[in-house]
Amino acid sequence: MKLVMLGSGTSTGVPRIGNDWGECDPAEPRNRRTRVAIVVEGADGARILVDTPTDLRHQLLATEIDRIDGVVWTHDHADHTHGIDDLRPLRMGRGAPIPGYAADETVRRLRQRFGYVFAGQHGYHTICNLDNLDRVRMVAGIAISHCQMAHGPAQSTAFRFDQNGKSIGYATDFSEINDEMINLFYRVDVLVVDALRRQPHPTHAHLAMALELVDTCRAGQAVLTHLDKSMDYRTLCGETPDNVQPGYDGLEISL
């Protein structure tokens, strides 16, 4: 399996509009962060996209990804969904719509907001077939398991992807750790985990909470994501354990 980190930044990215880098060194290219998303690639090259962020077109061009075999969504917030139209080129040349999955409430909100994606209009093909996560256990040969996480007053979906004895976990946009998350991620090989900033936040994990989840789950290695402008890459490298690294756009990890 392979993890490809498309984006590693918070909802406004780094730098923020206005060329605001905060505490991040502009000379360090790994501090330039687009909105969060990953691709999980199986042993046979099958790919699952997690979320459709605002920067999706740029991310797919940068990583030279021109095909996916399925897409799943963590939740419906704009930074995770508003690049959904960039699925259109990925639909071209396929004999059928791209399989897509999300939790019930996310399905409802996506259909309400982007109806044309899930039901073709004016002669255009349906881009994506959307179904509830409870109806799927495997996509393109990659096993998928999931649970719900608190994201302030909302919820976000945590994912685990397994194939051939290897595993990748993904936990972004959560504000507390629950037993379901610990069970889902227990001994995962790689855990991608929300770490917005050092100070606690009402809707996101901060650095200490992220490290607590990694330690409690006994993850083999972890990658921090959803990093804001206070989280300088090189500074973070000196603050994290040996098995934890700050994520960056374009990072790839092969298992």
From TrEMBL:
Q: What is its EC number?
A: 3.1.4.55
**A GO term for molecular function:** phosphoribosyl 1,2-cyclic phosphate phosphodiesterase activity
> ATP-binding as a keyword?
no
InterPro entries attached to this UniProt entry:
Metallo-B-lactamas (IPR001279), RibonucZ/Hydroxyglut_hydro (IPR036866)
Domain named Metallo-beta-lactamase: residues: 47-226
Q: Which UniProt keywords apply?
A: Hydrolase
PANTHER family associated with the record: HYDROLASE C777.06C-RELATED, HYDROLASE C777.06C-RELATED-RELATED
Q: What is this protein called?
A: Phosphoribosyl 1,2-cyclic phosphate phosphodiesterase
Q: Mind giving the lineage of the organism this protein is from? A: Bacteria, Pseudomonadati, Pseudomonadota, Alphaproteobacteria, Sphingomonadales
